[in-house]
Amino acid sequence: MAEKIVVASGKGGVGKTSLTVGIGKALHKMGKRVLIIDCDILRSVDLLTGITENLLYDWGDVILERCEAEAAIYPSADVAVMTCPTDYDGITENDMKELLRSLEDDFDYILLDAPAGIGRGFRLAFAGADRGLVVSTADMVCVRSACRAADVMYSAGMTDVRLIINRIMKKDIKKGRLLNIDTVIDSTQVQLIGVVPEDAKIRLGAMGKSIYKKGQVSYLPLTNIAARICGEYIALTL
Ligand SMILES: Nc1ncnc2c1ncn2[C@@H]1O[C@H](COP(=O)(O)OP(=O)(O)OP(=O)(O)O)[C@@H](O)[C@H]1O
Ligand SMILES: [Mg+2]
Asked: Residue with the nearest Cα to atom 6 of ligand 1?
């Protein structure tokens, strides 16, 4: 039965989608069956997984009974993807829970890529999730939003929320241009699951290049996060 994990951040543009795709690919490499559900009406998971052709149906169509779930699940080279409807009209949190229940036997992990903010799209994204990953960059603005996003999930009854600090640059931490890791953890009050460095290869994901490839600086950090998600103990090294 799939574990359902929402990836959220509050603040936009911190790397939720990139890390969802990277972690999804890393989980696939570990032999897991992975479905990524794009919960952002602005949609980008299809672009980052290279499945932009012939996308007829989205998960909204499944919920509103316009197609079977299989018709809205698009395979990529590694992960499977469901795209987001263009609005959330007529979709409730219970619908999301029901949708996930109907899919959970076919996958080991279902990753839900939340939109920015803590509004309706975010609430729909985490409604049926078992666990949460909160992504923050190491600056005060993102840390505050990550903290808010985590609080909303805790208040809704989610107990397992973990922090990923993204786009770390050691040089900038030393020079005081980024917060250090301990400060981010202390400020968000969320337990760390991994740190991902600034990586030009991830940036190129937005141009259709692979986000997860051996040799790139974020390969091992993403692999380690995936392994920790699967319950492996791997020490954090920076
Ligand atoms: N570790 C990283 N190194 C370099 N660039 C990164 C990294 N993580 C994300 N980016 C870049 O940051 C930008 C925003 O990333 P992404 O779209 O994944 O963020 P997001 O949180 O999903 O945004 P939104 O809130 O708009 O959905 C993209 O250009 C992406 O390539
Ligand atoms: Mg995104």
From this structure: 203
